[in-house]
């Protein structure tokens, strides 16, 4: 169109063609400008939401640091450094946005900038000088580099927990020269801002702010998550065998589970109720064992989480067995109970509470206390005591023992309560009571003499009913002299309260007249 000599008509056609092209370009440009404006609105809306979200995350992190302490304290300190760095750089970018839109007034009807009119980038031209940067451009690059350096310093640690965040910041704010479409390197700001419409530059700066908010959010999330993960690391756990109870009998099924338990000195309850105290994040139990049998341990931890009180109850059991402070020794041939007396019997099962033990046998009755019985054997030569115990899990165990039944041994006769040869005047014997007693017998028993024979040498034997001399005895006694011996024999002895049951033959007693 520009070559050769053109006719007036051709010139007119060419001019109209150029105007048409310009109009098309103008329409396309308005659509693009509006698109940049909408993009900027999206970024600014997202940035506003991110500011609120980040504030909430930081508050949560501060609460964790106050409640759980430990690594959350360091994480919160790092987060607050990042908060300051991010706010400063975010605010600086906001000043650049205000400079870019200077001269463009917000439309009253829409409350928005006139995007379609923001096709010039004159305000950004002050960032450049020739092919390089002006003082303003150099300042912008310096602020970006400072932001990256400050973030790296705040997030660098031995564990390298924030390496991903640092790498992302370095990538998003890499200010190295950039190759353009022609393969020629442009300065970073020149490539992104020089010659662009003001609305495009504003959108780009809003994207920067979004990147800043994203990095801040990543730090808070990592601080919360990493601190929690570190605290919950498997290196802080121990495999613990938890049996359903702490004592078992031979042949009984052992049941329980293996769990992972974490001992954390930073997990401190606000209160603890139970038989012990908190040491390094764990409850150390200290109590005196209760009675024999299954006993309970229970209590409650109370924690503070997000300002709320969280109760955590616990319950366990243990079994108390008798302390082996004495040996069980028995004479196999001496398992004896005596007929005619109340024999005290103690019954127990090792590891079973006395109130869970039941004994039975002919003549066996409870003495009123768990494990205590009284036995009054009847006829026969043997008595078998059967015992059943109920274990904590409800199972039954049983045993039995056989005792020989023996009669009470024969007692020894007494005069005035004295055995053997008793001396005194005849008058003493006339009023004395004939009695009997058991020597070396452990039971307290009452004995009644119901009859005896009296014999003096050279005199007839007198048979007496009762326990005192009768008139015939006294008549025979009157003919005796000093030195004579009176033999009391064939003494008939009964147990008090035993009816007509007579004890075996009672040994005689002698009275020597003085």
From TrEMBL:
Domain Gliding motility-associated protein GldM C-terminal: 409-498
InterPro entries documented for this protein: GldM_Ig-like-1, GldM_Ig-like-2, Motility-assoc_prot_GldM, Motility-assoc_prot_GldM_C, Motility-assoc_prot_GldM_N
Residues annotated as domain Gliding motility-associated protein GldM second immunoglobulin-like: 326-406
Domain Gliding motility-associated protein GldM first immunoglobulin-like: 230-322
Domain Gliding motility-associated protein GldM N-terminal intervals: 31-225
NCBIfam families noted in UniProt: GldM_gliding
UniProt name for this protein: Gliding motility protein GldM
Organism per entry: Flavobacterium hibernum
Lineage: Bacteria, Pseudomonadati, Bacteroidota, Flavobacteriia, Flavobacteriales
């Amino acid at each position: 169109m520009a070559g050769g000599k053109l006719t007036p008509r051709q010139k007119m056609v060419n001019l109209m063609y150029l105007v048409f092209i310009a109009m098309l370009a103008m329409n396309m440009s308005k659509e693009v400008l509006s698109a940049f404006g909408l993009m900027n609105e999206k970024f600014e809306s997202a940035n506003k939401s991110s500011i609120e979200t980040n504030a909430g995350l930081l508050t949560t992190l501060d609460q964790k640091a106050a409640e759980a302490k430990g690594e959350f304290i360091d994480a919160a300190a790092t987060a607050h450094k990042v908060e300051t760095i991010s706010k400063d750089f975010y605010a600086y970018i906001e000043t650049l946005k205000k400079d870019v839109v200077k001269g463009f007034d917000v439309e009253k009807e829409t409350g928005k900038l006139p995007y379609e009119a923001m096709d010039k980038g004159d305000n950004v031209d002050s960032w450049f000088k020739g092919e390089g940067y002006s003082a303003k451009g150099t300042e912008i690059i310096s602020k970006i580099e400072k932001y990256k350096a400050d973030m790296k310093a705040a997030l660098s640690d031995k564990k390298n927990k924030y390496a991903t965040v640092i790498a992302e910041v370095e990538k998003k704010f890499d200010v190295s020269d950039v190759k353009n479409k022609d393969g020629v390197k442009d300065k970073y700001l020149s490539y992104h801002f020089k010659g662009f419409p003001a609305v495009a530059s504003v959108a780009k700066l809003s994207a920067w702010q979004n990147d800043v908010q994203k990095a801040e959010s990543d730090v808070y999330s990592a601080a919360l998550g990493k601190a929690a993960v570190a605290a919950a690391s498997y290196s802080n756990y121990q495999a613990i065998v938890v049996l359903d109870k702490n004592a078992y009998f031979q042949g009984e099924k052992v049941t329980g589970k293996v769990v992972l338990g974490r001992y954390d000195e930073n997990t401190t309850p606000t209160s603890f109720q139970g038989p012990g105290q908190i040491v390094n994040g764990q409850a150390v139990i200290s109590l005196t064992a209760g009675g024999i049998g299954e006993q309970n341990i229970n209590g409650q931890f109370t924690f503070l989480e997000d300002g709320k009180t969280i109760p955590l109850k616990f319950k366990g059991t243990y079994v108390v067995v008798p302390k082996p402070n004495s040996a069980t020794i028995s004479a196999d041939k001496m398992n004896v109970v005596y007929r005619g007396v109340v024999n005290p019997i103690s019954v127990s099962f090792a590891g079973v509470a006395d109130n869970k033990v039941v004994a039975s046998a002919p003549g066996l009755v409870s003495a009123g206390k768990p494990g205590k019985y009284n036995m009054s054997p009847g006829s026969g030569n043997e008595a078998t005591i059967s015992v059943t115990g109920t274990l904590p899990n409800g199972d039954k165990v049983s045993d039995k023992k056989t005792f020989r039944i023996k009669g009470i041994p024969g007692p020894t006769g007494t005069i005035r309560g004295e055995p053997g040869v008793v001396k005194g005047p005849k008058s003493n014997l006339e009023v004395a009571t004939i009695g009997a007693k058991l020597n070396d017998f452990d039971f307290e028993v009452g004995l009644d003499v119901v009859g005896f024979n009296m014999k003096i040498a050279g005199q007839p034997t007198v048979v007496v009913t009762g326990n005192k001399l009768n008139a015939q005895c006294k008549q025979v006694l009157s003919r005796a002299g000093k030195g004579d011996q009176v033999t009391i024999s064939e003494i008939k002895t009964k147990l008090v309260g035993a009816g007509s049951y007579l004890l075996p033959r009672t040994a005689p007693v002698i009275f020597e007249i003085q």
